[in-house]
## 1
Amino acid sequence: MTDLFSLHLVYKQTDLWLRTEGKPDRQKVETYLKQAYEDIEAYVAKDSNFLSSLHPYEVRETAPDIIKAMSEYASKANVGPMAGVAGAIAEYIGKRLSSTHRIILCNNGGDIYYESPEEQWVFLSAPGSPFHNKIKICVPSAVKGKGLCTSSGASGHSVNMGRAYAVTILAGNAFSADVWATAMSNQIRSHEDIDRILSVCKEQDDIEGVVILVDDYLGIWGDIGLSRVE
């Protein structure tokens, strides 16, 4: 596996870990991060309902591309557009690094956009779970990029109405992965919901894989591998 460079940035609500083949330009990454925030904050200043809505929300025709994508994918998962904000920022930055880096893993607080010609391994963080930091996820190669995003009803600052320690979704982009992780996590009250949620995931064209951690139980489906952390 290719050795990667690492970069850590904290800005407002974002705690970003970036790993790339080739050393990333810190100043450029900071600029991309601030641009993403500027696009989102400027739109919210004009349309505050975008920020507070917990349901699909139609945005104005003049909205920035990142806002339109958040709205589009949130509608598919039947959640509010801010459910996908972390994945949106991760993808916004990652896409802009594509021309200079062959491998990119842009991790925004557990919501990841990645590009790689080879499979990648990612640790699964689920505070409170007996699986916390004891397993890692293998995701497939993604030359054009994919999203791997996690939502939790037990930790984190995002709005979540479920009880899962973690629901991790693999999708064709980070916008989609983030909103579907939130949507599925919201529906989980106990381990008895695992099979039902796996079935729902299988029916969604956008979802390529899922890992669910609830109580002492684990559910998995799709193009995802697991391994114990030695």
## 2
Amino acid sequence: MKKTLIALLISLAIPAMAQNAPTAPVQPTIPVMITVSPNAAAALANATTNSIFIDQSGDNPTVNMNQIGSGNKAGSSINPVYLRGFDQKIVTIQQGNNNNISTLQIINDAAGAGVGATVTIEQIGNSNTVDAICGDTTTGCNKAQINWAFSGDNNSMYFRGQGDSLTSQINVAGNGNAFNIAMLGNKHTNIIDISGNNNSVNLTQNSTGASGSSMVLAQQGTGVTYNVLQSGTVDNVLRINSVANGGSFNILQRN
């Protein structure tokens, strides 16, 4: 009887705990996946979007650079793309407008079985600039094969080569482009194929060895200007095949 009374008093002293019905969970909102950066358009239009700087020393390198968009840069006058070694293979492609390669410099030894470089530079677009050097005042750039391709208008190319057996081949489709080439050494070959109007070519070949240099020019277009200077102690060859109206050819050969 006493235990029953105590249990009854405890139950009266502790109030019953209230319980609420459970609430169903709310389904979360899944965010929309962003497939393209919201800054992509602004970045591509920015003059300093992408930059490449390379300082390479060693033999048998393979370097591929591909920049897509506007205002991209490969190297600068202070920090060039600098490649030193035997048997180099270099491909540089820029697609877009207002792109710049400055300065691409290639150096290998003056003699030996491993000399040489194979370089391809392609710019697709308008108002692009490339400045390339093969060799320097102390080390040559022998047996180099340099291929250039330009598709667009108002592009500029500057090339300085020093060494023997250099070959430069240029293919151009566009208007108002300017090409400036200066080569010093022995047995150089320049091949230029241009389709377009109001393009200009300034070429200097200075042969210093036992073999002369040659230039082969194929031109289709109007209002083209060519300034060619070939010099040295041996015979040089210039061959021009032009289908064009207007324009001018200024040629000086001396030995």
## 3
Amino acid sequence: MMPNIIEMGKENFLSMGGNWKSDFFKNANPLVIELACGKGEYSYGLGKAFPEKNFVGMDIKGARIYVGAKAAEEEGLSNVAFLRGKIENLRSFFGWKEVDEIWITFPDPRPKDKDEKKRLTFSRFLKLYQHIVKENSIIHLKTDNRPLMDYTVESVLAFGGQVLVLTHDLYESEWKHEHVGIQTYFEEKFTKKGFKINYLKFRLPVLEKEEGPVQAIFFRKEEMTETKDLS
């Protein structure tokens, strides 16, 4: 098992919430998470660029996160970890106001109306983020999908959130340098094809106390296999 991957079968799988800094990273540095991280290019890249922060890439696909975890281990990045789990269960893996920053990089846009509730910027997901982020924390979204970006802006505003930065052409904007050249597999693929990259930076309203029960963790059989190299 990779030491920098937290997954079912490891004794710390359900004990990390609220304890990432003390138990895993062994420091008090800011905690940044990347949701639906895929092969972890962004978490890995951010970890190299910002050694003063801790990064956790989260995805349900073990073969994907193995790639990023192996790269981080080979590079000796002790500030990068990966979590294999479902985003619906965020509150089981991260404690109340534990997270300093969230990145959502090129998520599935779920274009069909019937799949709206599965979009990572649907209100139920924003509520999950609201539970785990600190006051004034920043959430980032990068996508090549303009309809998803338009939907997200509406969703954030309807939720009472604040849009801080919005551009529909990141690499021709004043904010391109903030991304220090890091690109995911899909971002590199889309930019080479001439797609413009949308970028949103937003903040959610402060939640004064925890609301509702924490969703039970459930895995399908195919999601329970050990994370390993399938290349």
## 4
Amino acid sequence: MRHIGVMGGAFNPIHLGHLMLAQRAKDQFQLEKVIIVPSGTPPHKRAGLLDKELRFEMVAAAVADNPGLEASRLEIDRPAVSWTIDTLKELQALYGQDVRLNFIMGEDVVQSLKRYDRCAEFIALCRLLVSPRLSANSELVESWRKTLPGAELEAIDCPANALSSTIVRAWVKAGASVRYLVAPAVAKIIEEKGHYKDQAETAPATPGAKATANGETAAAPAAEANQPTTSVPTPPGTTAVPAPAPVTPTPTAAPAAPDNGSTTGR
């Protein structure tokens, strides 16, 4: 059976932490490729979220030189609200039953997924590749499996990384270089088009969090979900931006995908 990775999120913008995680998941689990799916229309407007076409342009540029990573327009071209579960169904129909989808997510999403009212349907669609906040051991992985009985679940062996899209946006706004935070092609687009320079920044409730259909916030999988809740690294000559306090989602909150912007939801 062929295995393909799926990594969703706002990617506002995509950064090197996202790319490192995608590449590591591909190599560790011998995935044919990893499909990176920028969110299209979120269920709630979010301050500082670039237009979906602009975010897709950066994702496409970031992976253009890597044949193992692929930018997908599935959610960009979807006229309705973007739900990850719909994306998984579309991908399964596209690739057929001889392909096993592997959904890349962060450790924080394990608990959110447990409370999702379509959890059983979701975990039947894919294997879960979980990126731990710090590092994974057998006890931690077993605890995830107990939380999500019936899920096929594995841990991604990827170094913890404090990089986030929030940091990238803050540094751009402060006039600092993001040369080693994002791919060169993405840095060029941000500089030439002036993305994030004059935007009001409203940080999400947790690193990589986004609104669910119920209006709560849920932690995102993949790179953004790995971040410790410490202060954001500060560009020279600026004031440190404290990280916001975590928010506990309500039992009906649907898990969100990587800054990871698509929402699992209905």
